[in-house]
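Progress report, Aim 2. The chain analyzed during this reporting quarter is listed below.
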Amino acid sequence: MDIIANYGTTLVLVAALFGFLMAWGIGANDVANAMGTSVGTKSLTIRQAIIIAMIFEFAGAYLAGGEVTATIRNGIIDSNAFVDSPDLLVLGMIASLLAAGAWLILASYFGWPVSTTHSIIGAIVGFAVVSIGPEAVQWSKFGGIVGSWVITPAISGVIAYFMFISVQKLIFNTDDPLNNAKRYVPFYMFLTSLVICLVTIKKGLTHVGLHLSDGEGILLSIAISIAVAFAGWIYIRGQKYNPQDDSKMHFANVEKVFGILMVITACAMAFAHGSNDVANAIGPLSAVASIVASGGEISSQAAIAWWILPLGGIGIVIGLATMGEKVMATVGTGITHLTPSRGFAAQLATAATVVIASGTGLPISTTQTLVGAVMGVGLARGIAALNLGVLRNIVVSWIITLPAGAILAIAIFYVLQACFS
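Predicted structure tokens for the chain:
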């Protein structure tokens, strides 16, 4: 308790610095995943992807990031275990932010798409075990996390596989692919918009004053999606398509139609991602700020100070702009060759899996969901279409993320204890 009384302001400033670093890592890794398919399909340039992500990720984080956040993500440790020693929780959360942020930046440097959620969970578990003991950790939660390594990619992979098969049967394997693309892509736009709207509304828009019931959320999602589909139908009809383009690349004009859809998906996914994953950075930071402000009192939820959400949003944007390119390349081109139609199937499957997970309480990593979806699209073309070497590296990076976060957090926790004791 003396540490909080004597160094309260310093602790909050250090937590803010490390929270910004964590947000930087999220931007470099997770946001690059969200934009990777759009860049890989050449629907967007890297510069355009960064600009879109800057606008929509920040908007999602700031507008829909929530007014309160769980102080300990996923309930992975028991906060009651720290009631008598809140200073340990404060130092542990600061250590977790630096550990998870450092791991995400390292993974981004090597182009590994890893889970930001699992990075922070591993870090929190690491400091909890060495500060209080194994009893502070709710180990039953780990079954769901490890299971998600298989279940999440499998669900999104299956959805992406059948989505791409439907595109092949309705459009590509027909006598007039271009006209069929004009006919069916607005329906795919409706479906995509509906799923993305449900993701965003499910995650909550209370921060902007929208308190919607499930029924109201579904009706609003349908209304928005009908408007998107109608606008897309008008835009597609108004585009000029040159038959000569198809002689250079088969189905070039069809892919041009899907390219429009990829831009819509990229914007929506960036907003949904910003509203959801910013909590990985601001949750522990809010915990530190709340405990210090209350003089050591620990609550299950903490009100977010006015400066925390912008800090997370800015960090995410800078992370993508400075370090996002390698992870984008891994997801967009490294696993399998993507075209706009294939990228669309992967993005829609990712969003649909997030909706399923939100409704059922399935622990989920957006990274693993997207990688599974890209694999599903690749498998629709045969196992030879997948780069198994890249997939092996990705799976290994998933497995070592939890222990890496834990080991780094333990080391940093001991250093912080020595500095503030």
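The radius of gyration is 22 Å. The beta strands are 68-70, 301-303. These observations will guide the mutagenesis work planned for the next reporting period.
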